Amino acid sequence: MEVDQLQRSFLEYSRLLFHEGFLDGQFSQLQLLQDESNPDFVFEVVSLFFEDSERLLNDLTIALDQQNVDFKKIDAHVHQLKGSSSSIGAQRVKNVCIAFRNFCDEQNVEGCLRCLQQVKQEYLLVKTKLEAQLRLEQQIVAAGGAIPMLNEFC
Amino acid sequence: MGTYNMDLCNCIEPPWPADELLMKYQYISDFFIALAYFSIPLELIYFVKKSAVFPYRWVLVQFGAFIVLCGATHLINLWTFTMHTRTVAVVMTTAKILTAVVSCATALMLVHIIPDLLSVKTRELFLKNKAAELDREMGLIRTQEETGRHVRMLTHEIRSTLDRHTILKTTLVELGRTLGLEECALWMPTRTGLELHLSYTLRHQNPVGFTVPIQLPVINQVFNTSRAVKISPNSPVARLRPAGKYMPGEVVAVRVPLLHLSNFQIHDWPELSTKRYALMVLMLPSDSARQWHVHELELVEVVADQVAVALSHAAILEESMRARDLLMEQNVALDLARREAETAVRARNDFLAVMNHEMRTPMHAIIALSSLLQETELTPEQRLMVETILKSSNILATLINDVLDLSRLEDGSLQLEIGTFSLHSLFREALNLIKPVASVKKLYVTLSLSPDLPEYAVGDEKRLMQVVLNVVGNAVKFTKEGGISISAFVAKAESLRDPRAPDFFPIPSDNHFYLRVEVKDTGSGVNPQDTPKLFMKFVQSQPLAAKNSSGSGLGLAICKRFVNLMEGQIRIESEGLGRGSTAIFIVKLGIPGRSTESELSFIHKGPGIQAKPNFSGLKVVVVDENSVGRMVTRGLLVHLGCDVLAVASGDECIRVVTHEHKVVFLDVTLPGTESFEVAVRIHEKFAKRPDRPIIVALTGNTDRTTKENCLRVGMAGVILKPVSLDKMRSVLSDLLEHGYLVESQ
Predict the structure, then answer these.
(1) Which residues neighbour B126 within 8 Å (Cβ) at sequence distance 6 or greater?
(2) What is the pairing mode between strands B619-623 and B663-667?
(3) Mean pLDDT lowest for which of B81-95, B262-276, B420-434, B562-576?
(4) Closest partner residue to B629 among A83, A151, A152, by Cβ?
(5) Is the Cβ pair A33, B722 closer than 8 Å?
(6) Which chain A residues have a beta carbon less than 8 Å from that of B626?
(7) Over B130-193, what HEC string results?
(8) Nearest CA in chain A to B672
(9) Cys-Cys crosslink for B621: which of A150, B538, B664, B733, Cβ 3.0 to 4.6 Å?
(10) CA–CA separation, A60 vs A103, rounded Å?
(11) Which residues in chain A are contacts of B430 at CB distance < 8 A?
(12) Comparing C-alpha atoms, which of B559, B560, B565, B572 is closest to residue B589?
């Protein structure tokens, strides 16, 4: 495939991700930080995010499974998840975390469980999308092109 | 007596006995013959002397000699009638012998001479005839010369004026005089060309309006030849005099071509392709028995041609005079109009200059004071009122600026302020300005700058910003849901020649590039037929727009002017109502460093100073429990060139922080007061040292308690997460410059 075409598909895909709210401006900031001295920055951060999130989701699942739900701990975990997702720009995950925290404050188990479900879904979605995007990136780099950027938006 | 006497006197006796009477008569005749014979040569000599022409002189001499000798003979014969001496006889014999000789010679000569003399006579006759002929010819030449003189005189008379009327009148008068005419008339074709109208006559002062149809056979006959034609005195064109008892004289008619300017080709004789002829009719005096002579007819023909030329000259002159008068009038009118226009422009400029100042001053006052008012304590209703005032005055200020700008643009007095500026930051700033508006309407805005877009460009930054803002603002204004995407890239040569913009001819060069910006929105769209009208002043195409329109309709017109000034092109494309629209503009910008302009003026504008301030090697510490967040913040700072030490907990931070670290980024999303304790402990560690590290808080919380707490524990400032690269950059610069954050980010 032509580099031009790849780049255009990449841009379209990125635009779509932003459009649908999966990613926000923070992600493009990360892309900015990728340069010759740090060529795999985005990849590293994203991988770290996946690891972190999976661990947190696991912990959350376990914690909510308990008889006596420790809302403080759940809150801390959700807080972490919120932090990570906002650092990487995973907007929808972050939004669900915010709602999750509210339910925690209310000590609403039902709500929390529902949120957990949602968070998992959103996480899986964003994971798939990010992986697809990373693959496109790799293809472009392999074809010798530069990765075009969607710089900023609100 | 006898012979004895004879012998002694040596005399000769005549052979016969002398008869007295006969001898007397002989004696007398001989005498007269001798006389005659002596006088004839004398007469001949006399006449020969008189005429020098006679070619045969010697013949005459011969003849004279013959006659003389004959005379001598006869004379001597006189002596022989009586007794004569021998001498006399001898003389007589000699004379006779000579005479014989001469006369024979003469006789022989005459045989030769007489034919010659006869031929002389024939020649003489011939010459006489010739002389008569020459005389005749001389007569003819003289006549012709007379005619020529007449023609020249006539022509002179005719051509000495350029007035049509005079020309025609003079022609008739002169012709009448030269040729001794009784009547001379000119028939002109009417406007319709179907009739001939009697226009001028010699004798009648005011010709009555006779007309004859043009299709008469006699008229056709005359029109078909360029020669003067004898016509019958009874034909309608010749019936000019009241019929009298006189025998009318011969009439001749000739055509006069009415030439137009178009008939005169440069290299040919005028083509008589014109169909318009006038008819000149000439009548000899009646009862004069005069005939038209050939030379007179020739004269008439020549005159007719001359008249044609003179008339066309007159017509040309008339035309050119008329054209010149018209031009003069137009000149005067134009001059007046120009002066009026100048006055109007001057008046308008004066007005604008005054209004400019007069209007802006109160506007500024209103806006400034309303802003200040906004900062004070107000009730919600008051706040609403103040906000409305502010919004309205901003709109008014924009309108005033627009109108003033447009006026200056229109009369070409606006000039671009060229300088070097950062393209990237221009777009980012535009984006930042439009973000609030868009987010209020819940619209997304994306910006995509192509990688080959130069960082810096040479052009008018302010106006380009205005264009971008205007276009983007327009897009936002007309979009209710969805969003706007802005993309900017360097236009390639092929894409510059857009079939949709056929009158745009960009010329790529080494010092310039063409920036192409596309702003696509998902808004209400525009009817494709209306797209050209969008850039016209004060035109609002959609009635719906009137409801929520806050513009004057000038914005896009101004954009177009600016874009044109930047040698570019702007247009809006839309597939129809409800289908969104795309605004595309291309402008020409210079490439800094390659242009031959004197200095590169650097204009710093807004946040994000691109002249990378030197953070290299700056030692900083990042404290964040969240691994992802930590990594991101670290990445930011590394990208800016810092030497980053990232730690996961407050304790670790206190352990590793040294005086070499200039800044500590402390993430305070840690629940509880842990982070604040960290700050306090750091302070304690470096108490009394002037170069202790600056502590900055990173937080996701926007509430004021967090901020207050941070400041209370001596943090230099609070940064709101997520942090963008530009934000971090400006934070660092601020911190290094001032030691604290001038405004919380």
Answers:
(1) none
(2) parallel
(3) B262-276
(4) A83
(5) no
(6) 52, 80, 83-84, 87
(7) HHHHHHHHHHHHHHHHHHHHHHHHHHHHHHCCCCHHHHHHHHHHHHHHHHCCCEEEEEEECCCC
(8) A76
(9) B664
(10) 14
(11) none
(12) B565
Which tokens go with B624?
């964040």
Which DSSP category does B263 fall into?
G
CA–CA separation, B670 vs B709, rounded Å?
14
Q: How far is A33 from chain B (nearest CA, A)?
A: 6
Q: Rounded mean pLDDT of B31-59?
A: 78
Query: What ipTM did this prediction achieve?
Result: 0.85
- Pick from B578, B592, B731, B711: nearest CA to B662: B731
Q: Average pLDDT for residues B446-453, to the nearest whole number?
A: 87
Greater pLDDT, B85 or B538? B85
- The Cα of B385 is separated from the nearest Cα of chain A by a number of Å equal to 29
The answer for residues whose C-beta is within 8 angstroms of residue B407's C-beta and 6 or more apart is B348, B352
Phi, psi for residue B153 in degrees, rounded to 5: -65, -45
The string of DSSP codes covering B82-143 is: S-EEHHHHHHHHHHHHHHHHHHHHHHHHHHHHHHHHHHHHHHHHHHHHHHHHHHHHHHHHHH
Instruction: For residue B628, give the nearest of A88, A148, A151 by CB distance.
Output: A88
> Known binder of ligand: residue B49?
no
Residue B517 has a pLDDT of 92
Q: How confident is the model at residue B543 (pLDDT cuts 50, 70, 90)?
A: very low
pTM, whole model, 2 decimals?
0.39
| B556 known ligand binder | yes
What angle is formed at CA B380 by the lines to CA B375 and CA B386, rounded to 5 degrees?
50
Report the pLDDT value the prediction gives residue B206, as an integer from 0 to 100.
59
SS3 label, residue B75: helix
Average pLDDT score, chain B? 79
In chain B the first and final C-alpha atoms are separated, in Å, by 208
How far apart, in whole angstroms, are the C-alpha atoms of residue A128 and residue A143? 23
Cα–Cα dist A17/B361, whole Å: 48
Confidence of residue B130 (pLDDT cuts 50, 70, 90): very high
Checking if the pLDDT of A63 tops 80, the result is: yes
Cis peptide before B362 (omega within 30 of 0): no
Average of per-residue pLDDT across B53-73: 77
3-class DSSP assignment, residue B419: strand
* B288 appears as a binding residue in the annotation: no
For residue B492, give the DSSP letter. Answer: P
Q: Is A86 on the interface with B (CB under 8 A)?
A: yes
